[in-house]
Amino acid sequence: MRHPILGLLCVAGVIGLSACDRSIDKDAVDREFAGVNALEGAGLSELMLTAADPAEAVTYFQRSAAEQPERLDFMRGLAASLVKARRNSEAAIAWAKVVEHPDSTSDDRVELADALIRNNDWARAEQVLDAIPPTHETFKRYRLEAMIADGNQEWQKADSFYEVAVGLTNTPATILNNWGFSKLSRGDHTEAEQLFTDAIRQEPSLFTAKNNLVLARGAQGNYTLPVMTMTQIERAELLQTLGLAAVKRGDVEIGKGLLRDALETHPQHFEAAARSLEALDGSVTN
């Protein structure tokens, strides 16, 4: 008579064990999928920073940081996406929050300094950089140091920082262009010309360096375009720059001739050059 009861207890035990097994399996699966989700989240975060529309990236990281406020990667993503979206005041606040995190790094402080400069808070950016150990030597740190030294007209320090920054990157065209513009602003036209030439050699498509090179040559009274790769539109724009440089030096007739060349060179109507030429003709007539 006791056998049916024993049988029921055995069945109940088996069912209980099965339930435990399923519970263990579920926990294991949950942990496994949590790991997968974390990996997918990291990949998605990288994609949002590099490929997404800036506004969409900001929205993604705002939501992610709100859901998981302890995640430093989401905090960094939000700060970086705000920089990308040119929301500079918000970016500076976001990077400041990142720096307050106990696991933040010197790189985060460099990013804060960059955001502060973008927000035109140069004094605070300098303070942030000064607090970073000198052993933290990165391209971005020295690029920012050079920019601040430029702003303070500490030319020797600026040159030193620019030189170090150039040596810390495999793509120095932009920093060479910045260094050249620093020289140009000081009136060191020959050195500026060489730096712009080096920048173009590194990156032949960098139009800013081409335009600055023409400015440096024009400031020295050299009104011929250098030999370099350029499109027809670029050639017209550079001729206009050269023409305006000539006018600035007082060589008005040469400048007008260069502006006419710019109008003839441009494949469409070159409104900016036309306005400049009309203004010069009007001033001469008056």
UniProtKB/TrEMBL annotation:
InterPro entries in the record: TPR-like_helical_dom_sf, TPR_rpt
Name of the protein: Flp pilus assembly protein TadD, contains TPR repeats
Coiled coil: none
Ranges: TPR repeats: 173-206
Domain of life where this protein originates: Bacteria
Record's keyword annotation contains Amino-acid biosynthesis: no
Keywords noted in UniProt: TPR repeat
Gene3D superfamilies, per database record: Tetratricopeptide repeat domain
Pfam family, one: TPR_16
PROSITE patterns per the UniProt record, alphabetical: PROKAR_LIPOPROTEIN, TPR
